[in-house]
Amino acid sequence: MRYQRFTIIQTARPGKKGINEKIQWFGLSLGLFTLRDKDKSSFRIFIELVKAAKGKKGLSSDELAERLRLSRGTVVHHLKNLEEHGLVNTERNKYFLRVENLELLVDELEKDMQRTCDDLKQVAKEIDSWLNL
User: Fold this and answer.
1) Any idea what the Cα angle at residue 8 is, between residues 114 and 57, rounded to 5°?
2) 89, containing H or E segment
3) DSSP three-state, residue 13
4) CA max distance for the chain
5) What does pTM read for this prediction?
6) Fewer CB within 10 Å, N or C, the chain?
């Protein structure tokens, strides 16, 4: 069974800061980057996948590890997290951003969340009916 984790953290939007701060805010808002990630591995992997999306290219965990000078284990750990959040797809040992840009990515996540909420409502309605609520 495939599952997807939704995390939305509401924080103040960055002002007129640079692109790195905006991408960090974007990832933090989706629960991708944590304080435990001292060397910002997840952020760096995410950036590489965003850059690769521009050329519609996938990257292997080995390619990411080499580019970022991280262990393959660290890269795989963060890639699994990105997959669980519905941001990354895998095809033939290559990792791709789910869609070609971040705006479309948010649209897709919004659709995923709506489907999940619709399922929750339906089951809640059935439970309420069984319990005569």
Assistant:
1) 80
2) strand 88-91
3) coil
4) 59
5) 0.81
6) N
What is the set of domains in the chain, with CATH numbers? 19-100 (1.10.10.10)
Token couple for 48: 């590489």
- CA torsion 12-15-18-20 (nearest 10°) is 0
DSSP string, the chain: -----------PPP-S--HHHHHHHHHHHTT---TT-TT-HHHHHHHHHHHHHHTT--B-HHHHHHHHT--HHHHHHHHHHHHHTT-EEEETTEEEESSSSHHHHHHHHHHHHHHHHHHHHHHHHHHHHHTT-
pLDDT in tens, the chain (133 residues): 567 888 899 989 888 888 888 988 998 899 888 767 778 899 899 999 999 998 888 999 999 999 999 999 999 999 999 999 989 999 999 999 999 899 999 999 999 999 999 999 999 999 999 999 9
Given a contact cutoff of 8 angstroms between Cβ atoms, the answer to whether 6 and 30 are in contact is: no
